[in-house]
Amino acid sequence: MKLLFDENLSRKLVVSLAELYPDSAHVVEFGLLESLEEHRTRFISVTQGLDTDLQNPASRFLLHVLGAAAEFERSLIRERAQAGRLRYQQDFASGKVGKTVYSRSSRNLPPHRPRKIFNRDQVIEFKPQGLSIRQIARNLGLGVGTVVRTLLECFKRL
Length: 158
Description:
The chain is mainly alpha-helical. The chain folds into two domains: 3-93, Rossmann fold (3-Layer(aba) Sandwich); 120-157. The chain has seven helices and three strands.
């Protein structure tokens, strides 16, 4: 990226826009056009016919259209992923997972992280004994964050 805005170079020539940004939505999102204008740099993509010269509004328009299409594609992917997660949750809740519906990993796991059931009083008892949070977590087979949250909840109640 430093080379792109090098003061000694007034033109940047690339074979494809993907060499500069793998996701063309970054062109709009990260303000590539504005940055190029600030540094008075001309960007030329040979295979895509893009030229960000101020005299060529058609290629600048095409660059904006590519960025908008990439943003649209990214939102569609996000929407499909959310719909897939929601459907798996519904199938798991209705008992279909493992019978008529299978997860991609074939492990048919619940759609969320299973809750760790533990005795919170044990966490609270270990702290006055002088054990560190990591030692408490190791002794009880818990994560450090779980121990910290448990201790914070205990102290909030007092």
